[in-house]
Amino acid sequence: MVMGHSAAVTKQHLHETAATTLMGRLLRKFWQPVALASDMAVRQARPIRILGEDLTLYRGESGKPYLVGARCAHRCTLLHTGIIREDQISCMYHGWRYDGSGLCTDIPAESKPRANPIRIAGYPVREYAGLIFAYMGEGAAPEFDLPRKAAFETGSRSFFPKREFWDCNWFQQVENSMDAVHLSFAHLWGVPGQFGASISAGGEIPALEYVETSSGIRQIAARSNGNVRISDWTFPNNNHIVVPGPDQKASWGHVSVWAVPVDDRRTMRFRIYSTDKVDEETAARIRADLAFEPTFCADALFNGDLSGLSEQSIISAQDYVAVRGQGEICDREEENLSSSDAGVIFLRRVFLRELEAIATGAEPKMWASLKENIDLPPPPTRAA
Ligand code: FES
Ligand SMILES: [Fe+2]
After folding, report:
1. What's the alpha-carbon Rg for the chain, to the nearest Å?
2. Which of 68, 83, 89, 91 gets mutated to test ligand 1 (max ligand atoms within 8 A of its CB)?
């Protein structure tokens, strides 16, 4: 991408993730979920790839997680095969040791001290609502604000974090969350689960309204009989909605979804489902309902076979077929937008404005979380 001229910023750059691209630079200014906290035991290390960068995520003996470069600075073997002692990780090959900031703190087989310190990448990390977040930008990390949801910090709640790998670009998922009309089609496709049936029984097309907020974009989709669905999308890749509970009697729960780029063609879809506190039996059932990975059954899904899926998995499957169906990276030169794409158009305008700020060296917007627990009303009627 050519830097320094605003005319260079087009929709052809919306999907990019590499650190050398405008979008890659913009994305790195935000805390991003990178792993499930429950996947990382004490003294465990895993290789992960985020925004096209290969990294090592490990949990020290203190319980704190750390995110450092994928490879040892000595002769480049993978660091996740190393040994964790206290809160540092030592390479399995010749024992070079690193702290959680990526600084090499010991070279045991070296007889002469080094004049200059050796470093690999190291990024700030923190845990929230069952996910591990990282900040991969330059300089000091911003306050951990945008990922926080008032709904997650209110009352006594249960959290069900999960991760899916989708084999397509992250921005298609972001656009999907700003497309309230797809509920009347995609979420009635295959199997009309509770979600699609409750919100858009009969496939009614909503009136759309989009408003920019301190944290992102509020989407208001109004159907008849007072069926108004509001969702708050947070810049740059997080949507917050309400969805049906695990069964007819349960209250609707809050869901926050992040589309985190592994690279341009793969996305980790982190999803926190949170409900009023439930007992262990219900929790186990919800966890089982959430155990779904669309790429494992992509052929069946693309043939319209959604049989046997839980309510929550049906929603994921329908979105996956729509979004993966656009291709690994959607060719936006081929599309023909219509008035029902008001949200997608609104969203792109906000992104292009922010990318232009990056391109011209101006300050992008300082986004800030919504402090109040905004009203996300479930539809007034439930499907039988
Ligand atoms: S390659 Fe890591 S210590 Fe030699
Ligand atoms: Fe959807």
Report:
1. 22
2. 91
Domain boundaries, the chain: 37-134, 150-360
Could you tell me the pLDDT band of residue 2, with boundaries at 50, 70 and 90?
very low
**Ramachandran bin of 137, using left for φ above 0, alpha for ψ from -120 to 50, beta for the remaining angles:** beta
Angle, vertex CA 316, rays to CA 312 and CA 320, nearest 5: 170
Name the more confident of 51 and 243.
51
Whether 258 and 33 have beta carbons less than 8 Å apart is answered as yes
Ligand 1, residue 77: give the atom nearest the CA.
1
DSSP secondary structure, 308-324, as one string? T--HHHHHHHHHHHHHH
pLDDT tens for each residue of 59-111: 999 999 999 999 999 999 999 999 999 999 999 999 999 999 999 999 999 88
Nearest CA to ligand 1 atom 4: 94
Q: Write out the two tokens for 156.
A: 């006594």
Q: Which of 68, 75, 104, 119 to mutate to test the pocket of ligand 1 (most atoms within 8 A of CB)?
A: 75
68 CB within 6 A, ligand 1 = no
Q: What is the CATH number of domain 37-134?
A: 2.102.10.10
CA of 176 from ligand 2 middle (Å) equals: 6
Q: Is 383's pLDDT higher than 60?
A: no
CA distance 304 to 202: 20
* CB of 144 closer than 6 angstroms to any ligand 1 atom: no
Fold of 150-360: Naphthalene 1,2-dioxygenase Alpha Subunit; Chain A, domain 1 (3.90.380)
Residue 380: pLDDT over 60: no
